[in-house]
Amino acid sequence: MRIAFITASSLPMPPVNGGAVENLIDIILKYNELSGEHDITVYSCESQKALDMADTYKKSEFIYINTNSVFYKLNKGLLYIINKISKRYHGNAFIRQIAKLIYSSDNKFDAIIIENRPEYAIPIRKVYKGDIILHLHNDLLNKDTRYSKAIIKSQNAIYTVSDYIKGRVQSIGNNIYIKTIYNGVNIDLFNYEIYAQKREDLRQKYGFKSDDIIFMFSGRLNEAKGIDKLMEAFVELPKELNTKLLVVGSSIYGKTKEDAFLTRLKQIANKRKEDIIFTGYIDYNDIPKIHAVSDIAVIPSVWDDPSPLTVYEAMSSGLPILTTDSGGIPELVTEECAIIVQRDAKLTEKLKDEMIKLALDNKLRERMAYHSRLRGENFSKERFASVLLNEVNIKFK
What we know:
The protein has helices spanning 20-35, 48-54, 70-85, 93-104, 121-127, 148-154, 163-170, 192-196, 199-205, 227-234, 260-269, 287-293, 309-316, 329-332, 347-360, 362-376, 381-396; strands at 2-6, 39-45, 60-65, 111-115, 131-136, 157-160, 177-180, 213-218, 243-248, 276-278, 296-299, 321-324, 338-341. By secondary structure, the protein is of the alpha/beta class. The chain has 2 domains: 2-184 and 381-396, 3-Layer(aba) Sandwich (Rossmann fold), CATH 3.40.50.2000; 187-377, Rossmann fold, CATH 3.40.50. β2, α2 (48-54) and β3 form a beta-alpha-beta unit. It is globular. The mean pLDDT is 94.
């Protein structure tokens, strides 16, 4: 099949600047490089690093939009104003350029997949008569979404990353075909056994003792991720439990700008400064080493997290998980590998109680770790790519 992927516009493909959605697209492209089944075109914003890497792909063509030109920026500003005051969506500078390119290509694609920008389907439908599929990663299309009816009318199918997101789309009340396709990660990279022998050496790097119980949080330091609730719970744990909190990927120290939330985190951390360790930036390929150091992954999201990759990664590493009833998280885990607490006024207290239970019960942690690894095997990057491409192939060929 001839398949086109339309990215959001903010980050280039290949994913030289990272990006969760961009990395998931790349999983699909690399899977297709091996299978050779499809001819794929990717529309992306321009980047010299991305251009250089594009040559390494044999089954994918990359078409770049120059988002730094004066003309593009003027057009972007004008369309922003027009869309603000208009009852119809006229597209932004990025998607309008892509629409012109698709129109001039004489509808050469068998299917177009739009990544996480529901409204892009409206201008694309005007120039393309084939099948349009929305791959939806966030809660961006529901009964309260502007242009929701026009967006649905412009699509042939929607793939969502969780049943939670699927339910939000269904709130619009249309009979469009919707299928949940869960994300995937490199489960070989996160294989705990690779780093098991180095566990003690890695622990010493962060000053941990062999009998310390390490709770790990990985993610951005913002209120939606619940890091403040976790830290508040942690500082209340009895010190004799020998617990540490490892905060991966961010730091509250050395920031040139500090908002009220960051100030609050500092105040909490100062209560047990010696037991709360901020790693700062960690290269993605080194995250499994941090998992090997840890005993429990804590994912305390307070917003409706659609399908966080941190859950997939923790399961692939065989870590027991303490998390919340957030968004799509309960769909990903099982009661054998995760403890799920409700998000309410007592969240901090509930986290503290479950952390104490996990710290005291080594057998429980071992059982959960075993089931976590088993569950993680269901979410390989190969499964994700093959399910999505097979779905397109069967339904829209």
